[in-house]
Amino acid sequence: MENQTNQFTPNKFMKTLSIIHLGLISWPTIVAVIVYLNTQSASFNFADTDNMFLVVVPIFALSSVFLGDFIFKQSIKNIPRTSSLKQKLTRFQTASIIKYGLIEAAAFFGVIGYYMTNNLAFLMISVILILYFFMLRPTKEKIMRVLNLKGSDRDQFNRPNQPLE
């Protein structure tokens, strides 16, 4: 008999994706708090036109959000309808990790911009990205909606401890 702990179930999938999401969102959050608490003279400064971060950080943030969303949607759209639920969930997880990674990178970049310049505008961009990232938290309902699970796939996904093949 195969080992029950190594089997892929909807419940294990949800736990794994939630842990990945939590891990990726926690690092920019922790670093932002530490950097903020260790900064002496922070201010909003939009007058320093020589500061390349004033252009690069917002562009990188927006690009990361849009590129992550584009890659995610393309990955989900390209899942064959005949794929098994396990294959669909695996592709969803991969697409989610790419999207999460791009947002995490942009949030970190904003924190670095803040750390180097003490300009709160960069920290605010990071905070907005972290809040957006939080809203991307995986839930069973979101996954069913995004993957458009119907019929037997939906039934399988609603049996959280049933192994998927």
From TrEMBL:
<feature type="transmembrane region" description="Helical">
    <location>
        <begin position="92"/>
        <end position="114"/>
    </location>
</feature>
<protein>
    <submittedName>
        <fullName>Uncharacterized protein</fullName>
    </submittedName>
</protein>
<keyword id="KW-0812">Transmembrane</keyword>
<feature type="transmembrane region" description="Helical">
    <location>
        <begin position="51"/>
        <end position="72"/>
    </location>
</feature>
<feature type="transmembrane region" description="Helical">
    <location>
        <begin position="120"/>
        <end position="136"/>
    </location>
</feature>
<keyword id="KW-1133">Transmembrane helix</keyword>
<keyword id="KW-0472">Membrane</keyword>
<feature type="transmembrane region" description="Helical">
    <location>
        <begin position="20"/>
        <end position="39"/>
    </location>
</feature>
